[in-house]
Specification:
By secondary structure, the chain is of the alpha/beta class. 43% of the residues lie in helices and 11% in strands.
Length: 108
Amino acid sequence: SACSTAGRLDFDEWVAALSLCHLIISNDNGGMHVADALHVPIVAIFGLTDPGRTGPLGARARVIQPPHITGRRDISRDDREARAALEAVSVDEVCRVSETLLAESERG
């Protein structure tokens, strides 16, 4: 099941909770990197930022990014183009990649 712990856990509790997860779906943020360090499978959703520079490094991570995007770093979080790029990632694609990654993780 999915849950949000935003603002309800201190850092140590949050790391412990992440370590218990079977899968993390995240945008490009620090939590994604913590989950990656814990070897938790990750589906990382990128908009305009470059996953080659700031993406997860683990073998159990998959990056989803809209096609034809050139990674950038000079982007405001409120940028209309950045928001449109994230919105171009479909729920169906996130579900498909998540299900595949979970199946791969279960096989071992």
